Amino acid sequence: MSGLLIRKAVSSDVEKLVELRLLLQQHGEDSNPSVWRITEEGKALVKQKVENALVGINSKVLVAEMNGEVIGFIHGEVSRRTDYLPKSVGAISTIYVVKKLRRKGVGARLVNELFEFFNSERVEHVTLRYIVGNRAAEGFWKKLGFEPIITTAGMRLNELRAPSSVGDLKSVF
């Protein structure tokens, strides 16, 4: 895509990043009615979370800019550990591209640039999460080679269907 610039996010991008992060949240909520909903307090905390990500030692926030306008972003983090292999893991925490410019290579460019950071940090494995029902995300990540390896399931506690007897649990476990 001509005229697309991928660059490191700076403090003057914070307000736009907050706006895009909230659009991502809304997109997720629209994709799956069971996903957790952000509260007003949560919305108020987004700015602080964005500011923290910009200064994080093991964190990188990149923006996609076109004609001087931020049209997308990606946030990734690196963690190191000794108790599991691989020892160095990159996590794609968030990615969002404005709706009108999706499917034009912006997201892939953001991912490629973030992978340069991961490579410089000697990351061995990259992980991410997306909402079940977000078909665009499912297709995007699959096209880039990502495959689900863990499923997170959830339910509201008041909807728990308790087994009628211990025997019911034995058939499951």
Keywords:
173 residues; alpha+beta; Aminopeptidase; 5-stranded mixed beta sheet; 38% helix
Please, could you describe this protein's structure?
- The protein has a single domain, classed as Aminopeptidase (3-Layer(aba) Sandwich), CATH 3.40.630.
- Helix 3 (106-120) links the parallel strand 4 (88-97) and strand 5.
- A 5-stranded mixed beta sheet has the order 1-2-3-4-5, sandwiched between helices.
- 38% of the residues lie in helices and 23% in strands.
- It starts with a strand and ends with a helix.
- The longest helix is centred in the N-terminal third of the chain and has 18 residues, at 14-31.
- The relative contact order is 0.14.
- Helix 1 crosses helix 2.
- It has 173 residues and is an alpha+beta fold.
Fold topology:
Blueprint: E1 4-8, H1 14-31, H2 40-55, E2 59-66, E3 69-80, E4 88-97, H3 106-120, E5 125-128, H4 135-143, H5 166-172
Parallel strand pairs: 4-5
Antiparallel strand pairs: 1-2, 2-3, 3-4
